[in-house]
Write a structure and sequence with these properties.
Helix content: 40-55%
Radius of gyration: 16 Å
Oligomer: single chain
Strand content: 15-25%
Order of helices and strands: EHEEHEHHEEHH
Number of strands: 6
Amino acid sequence: MAKKKFFESDDQIVSMINDCANRCGLPECGVNIQVMSTSKQKEVIKVGKASDPTEFLTKTDNAVQFFVYEEVFLELDEELQRFLVEFAFDGVYYDSDKDKVVVEKNPYVALFDMRRKYGERAVELLEAAYLAVKQKADKDKEE
């Protein structure tokens, strides 16, 4: 039987993402966080605004979806896990003037923000995450 592309995330992952959402104050703005894991993707965590049909089907508004490459994420140390969750949240905010949730798509903005906070360590952590995904892909090709 083939692996499912999407599946329910590990409780540790959901908790870490929800904790970060709460620290950012997103639930108070009406932002609904949806977390799911995937069996394969190019990033450890990918974030996006849920489509209108998805919001209709799930009966939620202002839904932000977090897709976590769980197998890779759980192998990372806690510092890198927390960094990646924070990095994913960096571009998510509620625009009260437009009355909608925004997911910034420009990765440079998040990188610059995180570099201000973590210094050069931000680049090292992102490189470690990239290498973890690459090593997993290489391992899967060998099998």
